[in-house]
Every structure is written in C-alpha cells, then in structure tokens.
C-alpha cells in the first residue's frame, strides 16, 4: 500500500490538537501533535508519539519531561505556530506549571516525567507519568482530513 493511502485513512480519525512542550537548558520548546492518548489510571500514564526527524525527539530524551497542552478551539493560530505553518516569525508565549513551559489558556495542561520509551517504526513513543494537571472550560480544537475544526455547540450538550 502506498504512503498516501495510509495517511488518508489515518486522516479519517478526528482528533484533538495538542502542543507538546519541554524545556532544555533553560529554553522552552514546543511542537504541534495529535498523536496523544491516555494509557493507564494507576499509575496515571499518557503516551505521545514523536517522529524520528522531529527536533523535539532529542529534546524530550534529554530533558526527561514533557507537557501535553490540549488546545481550545480559538487556539488554531497557536497550533499553526508550533507546526511551522505561520509565514511571519513569532515568539511563543509560555506559562509555567511545576517549572515546565505550558501553553496559556489551553483546555488542559498535563505535565509529565518520561516513564519509558518505545521505538515504533519511524517514531518514538514516550510514555509519561502525569505529575500535574490544570483544566479550563472550553471547546476543543479538532483536526480531521488535514483541516482544523471544532465541535458544533449542539454536540456539546
């Protein structure tokens, strides 16, 4: 099967949008990702998937920690910034939770220590043990078939 068919099939799965953040040598780093899920309640574990060509891969390996920031519907520009999709160069603004850089006003900030890693094909799965969570009310930013979207208000009832 060709790569485009596989990518198109994966695009049929609607997801939320996250920005993964970490800090290395006092500098905050972030990347947009939608490969995120919960793994375990006891202990509280989540997993993220980072491509072997992503700059973030080595940064998380070295720092041993990361935060998952689940974006709100009005944060599409934030997602585009960390995905390298904005034409103009802008500096990102970060908040801090447990001495980790996080995205301000995200629906959820989930701060993790790396629990374990698993190489899977051309990605590394980072299983993170959750250290802190901050939640906010709002509607999630979604991604489907390569396009941003959001849930309709009637779906939220």
TrEMBL record:
It comes from the Bacteria. Residues 10-150 form the Flavin reductase like domain. It comes from Bacillus badius. The keyword Oxidoreductase applies. InterPro entries: Flavin_Rdtase-like_dom (IPR002563), NADH-dep_flavin_reductase (IPR050268), Split_barrel_FMN-bd (IPR012349). Keywords: Monooxygenase, Oxidoreductase. Pfam families: Flavin_Reduct. This is Nitrilotriacetate monooxygenase component B. GO terms for molecular function: monooxygenase activity. Transmembrane segments: none annotated.
């Amino acid at each position: 099967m060709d790569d485009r068919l596989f990518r198109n099939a994966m695009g049929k799965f609607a997801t939320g949008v996250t920005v993964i953040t970490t800090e290395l040598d006092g500098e905050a780093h972030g990347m947009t990702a939608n490969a995120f899920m919960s793994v375990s309640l006891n202990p509280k574990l989540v997993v993220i998937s980072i491509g072997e060509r992503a700059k973030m891969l080595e940064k998380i390996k070295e720092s041993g920690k990361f935060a998952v920031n689940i974006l709100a519907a009005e944060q599409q520009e934030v997602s585009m910034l960390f995905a390298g999709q904005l034409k103009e160069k802008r500096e990102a603004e970060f908040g801090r939770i447990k001495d980790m850089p996080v995205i301000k006003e995200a629906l959820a900030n989930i701060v993790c220590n790396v629990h374990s890693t698993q190489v899977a094909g051309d990605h590394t799965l980072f299983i993170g043990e959750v250290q802190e969570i901050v939640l906010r009310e709002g509607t999630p930013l979604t991604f489907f078939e390569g396009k941003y979207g959001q849930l309709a208000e009637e779906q939220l009832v």
